[in-house]
Amino acid sequence: MKQTATFIPTLRETPADAEVRSHQLLLRAGFIRQNTSGIYSFLPLGKRVLQKVETIIRQEMEAANSMEVFLPALQQAELWQETGRWYSYGDELMRLKDRNDREFALGATHEEVITSLLRDEIKSYKKLPLSLFQIQSKFRDEKRPRFGLLRGREFLMKDAYSFHASTESLDEAYMDMMKAYTNIFTRLGLNFRAVIADSGAIGGKDNHEFMVLSEIGEDTIAYSDSSPYAANIEMAEVNVTYNETQDTPKEMEKKETPDQKTISQVAEFLGTSPDQCIKTLVFKADDEFVVVLARGDHDINDVKVKHVANATLIDLATPEEVKELLGCEIGSIGPVNLPDSVRLFADHAVKTIVNGVAGANEDGVHYINVTPEQDFPVESYADLRFIQEGDPSPDGKGTIKFAKGIEVGHIFKLGTTYSEPMNATFLNDQGKAMPYIMGCYGIGVSRVMAAVAEQFQDDSGFTWPNVIAPYEVHIVPVNVKDDVQREMGEELYTLLKSKGYEVLLDDRKERAGVKFADADLIGLPIRITVGKKAAEGVLEVKIRQTGETFEWQQEEIIDRLEEFFNK
């Protein structure tokens, strides 16, 4: 493609509202443009990258025996109501009505739609297993779109769904998808890890996220320094043996603690340490309140609380709800003398506290000498805290370290989470109606593009890997007014295209400095400069990722490129 015939609006200045480097470069290099908050147009270069990512995904999905379909983005509310997600999914679901006042949603995900399709078509175990995938735009009304393509309101996603007659069949498909995803992200050249994760609003259990390691990642990965163990911090189990004290429990006593609301403030005021304080939080688990305890130096993990409380939705109680329930401000909550209707859960570490400190459910008042079971009953003890760096790895090998990650893929074992409420059944080999056993497998295609952009860059611009660079070769005649340079550039352009190379020819009447800056910014793997030595048949070649430069003879250019691209 000739540069004068395409649309590559590069920018010299960095857009002020672009926070992260990948977003800045995608805008500056003319790959994307923002339409409105969280919604982007993909320009020719960006579209070419997306298409190449999609090609790799399609190849690996088909290798895993998954076939492509295309499902409607506009979904009727009745399907979501069957599973209850119309009410539980939250404000991210974009809802609308047609002229007949029927309710619809713009597809945030497609579990309900694909399940309704299969329940009408597949009635026998003989037609199972079956795996289908699509690549389509998704819509989620993000409260705070940020980081460009990494968190938007409209984005491109690959979602796949598998249907099975047995859990063994699902297990096999899950491992096939694990392999397919590993192949996809490896082929893209990404530095990633598969981590144990929470299923969130999708439902089901047994799932993994694929995380690209990056300092700008919104997720924290807990990983072992001595084994392959890795988990999203929300799902990392705590496997710690706490030392029990031999102290004798004392009688509980109230102490005035005016204006002391945080654990650190209370501990310092009372002359103790945070690990002797009992942190108390009130959660609303579906329609009931639960109180959760942790040691003062630990943080309570709401995902673990949701599982222990067997809740669909979990959120911190508001200050107003706490005031109505316990009669105090949040900084004075404690586990003593709670209402009978409130369930009380505690992290394992709390069980070893003797003569600790806890809120008294009175503003500006705390108890000292508080001991669990003696001074308040606990319904159950469980792993309810976030793992910390330095904790033992849950697999018993090494200790935990943290890294930041960008989620680019997620695979789930859904089981019958959708098939049961939607009455999606098949007849098994004994003629009995059984719900499909399902799996779900997603990749954020546009997010993958941003993740690659985040990992493949330098001070001058992108350094795209060969497999998804928008073009393979950038030909830059230094002076198009020079007949020799211009004609050699055109000749080389025609030759490389005839050999199957994807070529961008900078035929613009721009200064050499502008052309070189744009070439580095766009970041194609090979730049061939047609300059002053063109009359001698000598070309200057730059390898974008390494910055190395060479002089190649015109007649050897094909052999050299074949060697570089392994063609």
TrEMBL record:
GO cellular component: cytosol
Enzyme class: ligase
Domain (Aminoacyl-transfer RNA synthetases class-II family profile) ranges: 38-465
Enzyme nomenclature, EC number: 6.1.1.15
InterPro entries, A to Z: aa-tRNA-synt_IIb (IPR002314), aa-tRNA-synth_II (IPR006195), aa-tRNA-synth_II/BPL/LPL (IPR045864), Anticodon-bd (IPR004154), Anticodon-bd_dom_sf (IPR036621), Pro-tRNA-ligase_IIa (IPR002316), Pro-tRNA-synth_IIa_bac-type (IPR004500), Pro-tRNA-Synthase_IIa_type1 (IPR023717)
Biological process, per Gene Ontology: prolyl-tRNA aminoacylation
Compartment annotation: Cytoplasm
UniProt xrefs under Gene3D superfamilies: Anticodon-binding domain (3.40.50.800), Bira Bifunctional Protein, Domain 2 (3.30.930.10)
Catalytic activity: tRNA(Pro) + L-proline + ATP = L-prolyl-tRNA(Pro) + AMP + diphosphate
CDD domains cross-referenced by the UniProt entry: ProRS-INS, ProRS_anticodon_short, ProRS_core_prok
PROSITE patterns assigned: AA_TRNA_LIGASE_II
Keywords recorded for this protein, A-Z: Aminoacyl-tRNA synthetase, ATP-binding, Cytoplasm, Ligase, Nucleotide-binding, Protein biosynthesis
Coiled coil: none
Top-rank lineage group of the source organism: Bacteria
GO molecular function: aminoacyl-tRNA deacylase activity; ATP binding; catalytic activity, acting on a protein; proline-tRNA ligase activity; transferase activity
HAMAP family: Pro_tRNA_synth_type1 (MF_01569)
Similarity-based family: Belongs to the class-II aminoacyl-tRNA synthetase family. ProS type 1 subfamily.
Its biological purpose: Catalyzes the attachment of proline to tRNA(Pro) in a two-step reaction: proline is first activated by ATP to form Pro-AMP and then transferred to the acceptor end of tRNA(Pro). As ProRS can inadvertently accommodate and process non-cognate amino acids such as alanine and cysteine, to avoid such errors it has two additional distinct editing activities against alanine. One activity is designated as 'pretransfer' editing and involves the tRNA(Pro)-independent hydrolysis of activated Ala-AMP.
This protein's domain notes: Consists of three domains: the N-terminal catalytic domain, the editing domain and the C-terminal anticodon-binding domain.
Subunit structure: Homodimer.
UniProt name for this protein: Proline--tRNA ligase
Species for this entry: Planococcus salinus
